[in-house]
UniProtKB/TrEMBL annotation:
Species per Swiss-Prot/TrEMBL record: Pseudidiomarina piscicola
Name by which UniProt lists this protein: UDP-N-acetylmuramate--L-alanyl-gamma-D-glutamyl-meso-2,6-diaminoheptandioate ligase
Keywords: ATP-binding, Cell cycle, Cell division, Cell shape, Cell wall biogenesis/degradation, Ligase, Magnesium, Nucleotide-binding, Peptidoglycan synthesis
Superkingdom, natural source: Bacteria
Domain Mur ligase central: 108-298
GO BP terms in the entry: cell division; cell wall organization; peptidoglycan biosynthetic process; peptidoglycan turnover; regulation of cell shape
Involved pathway(s): Cell wall biogenesis; peptidoglycan recycling
Family according to the record: Belongs to the MurCDEF family. Mpl subfamily.
Classification via Pfam families: Mur_ligase (PF01225), Mur_ligase_C (PF02875), Mur_ligase_M (PF08245)
């Protein structure tokens, strides 16, 4: 079957392309913006990708078109699909029908940490010999890809609450029908499609409603928004997580180092408790929490916690999650996907724990629809306080004033200007944290090149 994917360079749709290719289909795709790491992954798989949405890409006519949720009516390729009556599906629906309906699905949902936690869970299962399939919204460093078909009945998926497609406004995750569900956390986000937190909670409860009775829902004991969702009705087993000494919970963890590179995990059950220590390369209390969530999910399908701890010791974080890109001339440059104030603050806190008193230079692109609308503008200044200095790119369509809400930030109006501003201030020992949920106009490599060239 020839499958053409519209919006193929998104992390989710790129994963769909990889899975369809592995299932033996002829896969092509198109997108308006083509950039790494997904473009590199698609090229390595031999998937031909077209720039833009020219209807001519649909000749000869594919057997099926999978349409990403970034596309809408008026897009020339979408109009051609409808006018020519080419069969089409959303990515989430295709995934369910073609693959997931016969799998034990382990889904990771929540506002923050989905990609990292799902990556940890996939790695734990792989190290335990489960040969899982997975689809995660980022390139997994341990696997070198974002999706894998697997060779068993187990499938790990990052379960996103964003809508499915222009013709299906339900959250994508309602298509997955998980038997093991992690609810990491819940905050207001995606203001372009949700009016408030209550609307998101309704979607999360739709997800809870389809977890079977034998299934398990794993969540933090202290997250009020999630508890409100579960109080609407929960028909599955539950496991809870908490920092040791704070709240009663089935799973508890305690940091043994300030940067969370070593922590203990205790599982409390009806027949007593068991405890292990995790020592790994990641940092940050949020990552320790993510790890325990993954351990609890793996335990639900039979993985002992000591096996999980051993696997996590070899876990490499997903690309674009506090990823160290290089240290030219003694200046460390990191890339992170953070674009919500909570994620920004959490990432900066983790970096501070790692680098101590070194100067942290935060570089932020407020790119998401929610960020552009200014929904979180009032929280942004506080989220950036851990950084010693901050630079922000003002994108087109920003509906609020950076100068008003983040007065200490140095503002630029182009990537060229931003590079010039950074090069005037950077010095050996600096820790540069670049945060964006997009390609940031190639800033990462440009900055690395400029810093490296200063001694040439």
């Amino acid at each position: 079957m020839h499958i053409h994917i519209l919006g193929v360079c998104g992390t989710f749709m790129g994963g769909i392309a990889a899975l369809a290719k592995a299932m033996g289909h002829h896969v092509t795709g198109s997108d308006a913006a083509v950039y790494p790491p997904m473009s590199d992954q698609l090229a390595a798989l031999g998937i031909e990708v077209y720039q833009g949405y020219d209807p001519a890409q649909l000749e000869p006519q594919p057997d099926l078109v999978i349409i990403g949720n970034v596309l809408s009516r008026g897009n020339p390729a979408v109009e051609a699909v409808l006018n020519q009556r080419i069969p089409f599906r959303s990515g989430a629906q295709w995934l369910h029908d073609a693959l997931l309906q016969d799998k034990w699905v382990l889904a990771v949902a929540g506002t923050h940490g989905k990609t990292t936690t799902a990556s940890m869970l996939a790695w734990i299962l792989a190290q335990a010999g489960y040969q899982p399939g997975f689809l995660v919204g980022g390139v997994l460093a341990n696997f070198g890809c974002s999706a894998q078909l697997g060779a068993s009945d187990f499938f790990v998926i990052e379960a996103d609450e964003y809508d499915t497609a222009f013709f299906d406004k339900r959250s994508k995750f309602v298509h997955y029908q998980p038997s093991t569900l992690i609810l990491n956390n819940l905050e207001f986000d995606h203001a372009d499609i949700f009016p408030d937190l209550a609307a998101i909670q309704t979607q999360f409860h739709h997800l809870v409603r389809i977890v079977p009775g034998y299934g398990k829902i794993i969540s933090p004991a202290a997250d009020t928004a999630i508890e409100e969702v579960l109080k609407r009705g929960c028909w599955s087993e539950r496991s809870t997580l908490a920092v040791a000494g704070t709240l009663p919970a089935d799973w508890q963890f305690e940091l043994m180092t300030a940067d969370a590179s070593r922590f203990s995990v205790e599982r409390r059950g009806e027949n007593g408790s068991e405890k292990v220590t995790v020592q790994w390369d990641l940092v940050g209390e949020h990552n320790a929490s993510n790890a325990v969530m993954a351990m609890a999910a793996a335990h639900h399908v039979g993985v002992p916690i000591d096996v999980s701890a051993t696997a996590l010791a070899e876990f490499k974080n997903t690309k674009r999650r506090l990823e160290l890109l290089g240290t030219p001339n003694g200046i460390a440059v990191y890339d992170d996907f953070a674009h919500h104030p909570t994620a920004i603050a959490t990432t900066l806190k983790a970096l501070r724990a790692k680098v101590g008193s070194a100067r942290i230079v935060a570089v932020l692109e407020p790119r998401s629809n929610t960020m552009k609308q200014g929904i979180h503008a009032e929280q942004l200044d506080a989220a950036l306080t851990v950084a010693d200095t901050c630079f922000m790119l003002e994108p087109d369509g920003l509906q609020w004033s950076i100068a008003e809400y983040v007065p200490a930030a140095t503002i630029s109006h182009s990537v060229d200007e931003l590079v010039e501003q950074l090069m005037r201030t950077l010095q050996a020992g600096d820790q540069v944290l670049i945060m964006s949920n997009g390609g940031f106009g190639g800033l990462h490599q440009r900055l690395l090149n400029e810093i490296a060239a200063t001694n040439d």
